[in-house]
Amino acid sequence: MKKAQVSSQVIAWTIMVIIITGLLFGLFLVINTYTNKQAEISPRLQSEIIALRFANIPECFAFEDKNTGRVYPGLINLEKFNNEQLSKCYHTKEIGGFWTYNFELKLQQSEVKINTDKYVGSNNPAFTLFKEVAVKDGEEIIKDTLAIYVQESAIR
Amino acid sequence: MNKKGFELSMFMVASIFIVVLTGSLAISKAVTFADKDYSFKENTVQNIQLMVNTLVGVPGDVIIEYPLNVSEYNFILRQNSVVMFDKGDLESAWVEDSFFLPNSYFASGSLEEKARLCLFKENKNIFLRECENEEGTS
């Protein structure tokens, strides 16, 4: 075989190899994306469900009457509305940190703002949920809106 | 073989290796996806994760039945995750989804190839087990 023939064959093979690799890699990406889409649940739905707990259970911020043990879902105890209580209610260390849902909660009338352990910065949520709540501040109960700012990363 | 020929064939070997590697990845992903169980497992563990988060977010004791037949599968509910697998699967092939439970909540339970899966919330404990006769139905 002549030298020129050999080198042109090598060039042709090299181009073929590059094209086939590219095509296979593209196929891999398409299949991967399609598989992930098949199992996708809307981030808004997922975060709505996680956020149910904030105003509904005493391990988060719901007011609990110490004398009777009765819990008042939807009534937020302002005394408990702080980062320490939020970390008992929801934190992300064991479930992915930055790679899962993180929340910033703001009571709009009371102007109190708290956030979960891996919430980055401020004013950069993926989307915001709003819940009408009542807030118990000492003996006073006021109507308020709980704004839930959600950050979600590429977890799926 | 001369030096140039050796270099060229090493290049060819490396190229073929890359093609085979990428091809294997693509084919293994395709095979995994073609396995109808994979998407079903992914969806099921996500649904159970959502059910656990829902149970956490509602006051009182609750029982929910998963509305599909899961008699071909096994489940384990752990403190921070739920896993689903076929009997004999390697642990690396188990499908898992995670959740966070508030302090003082506990999750546990398992189900081995039973048709009806129920999640129970009693006080701050969440259990996964087989539904009994009328449980979870309305």
Identify the biggest protein-protein contact and residues per side.
A-B, 41 and 37 residues
Main sheet properties of chain B: 7 strands, mixed
Q: Identify the strand order in the major beta sheet of chain A.
A: 1-2-5-6-3-4
Based on CA atoms alone, the radius of gyration of chain B comes out at 23 Å
Determine the N-to-C terminus distance of chain B: 79 Å
* SSE-based structural type of chain A: alpha+beta
- Looking at how many chains there are and whether they match, the oligomeric state comes to heterodimer
Strand content of chain A: 25-35%
Question: Mind explaining what this structure looks like?
Answer:
The complex is a heterodimer of chains A (156) and B (138). Chain A has helices at residues 3-38, 43-56, 83-89, and strands spanning 62-64, 71-77, 102-107, 112-115, 127-137, 140-151. Chain A is an alpha+beta fold and 156 residues long. Chain A has 2 domains: 1-40; 41-151, no CATH class. Chain B is an alpha+beta fold and 138 residues long. Helices cover 39% and strands 26% of the residues of chain B. Chain B is built from 2 helices and 7 strands. Chain B has a 7-stranded mixed beta sheet with strand order 1-6-7-5-2-3-4, with helices on one face. Chain B is elongated and about 70 Å long. The interface between A and B is large, with 41 and 37 residues.
Per-chain topology:
The complex is a heterodimer of chains A (156) and B (138).
Chain A: H1 3-38, H2 43-56, E1 62-64, E2 71-77, H3 83-89, E3 102-107, E4 112-115, E5 127-137, E6 140-151
Parallel strand pairs in A: 2-5
Antiparallel strand pairs in A: 1-2, 3-4, 3-6, 5-6
Chain B: H1 3-34, H2 36-57, E1 62-65, E2 74-77, E3 81-85, E4 95-98, E5 106-112, E6 117-122, E7 125-130
Parallel strand pairs in B: 5-7
Antiparallel strand pairs in B: 1-6, 2-3, 2-5, 3-4, 6-7
Summary tags:
heterodimer; A: 156 residues; alpha+beta; six-stranded mixed beta sheet; B: 138 residues; seven-stranded mixed beta sheet
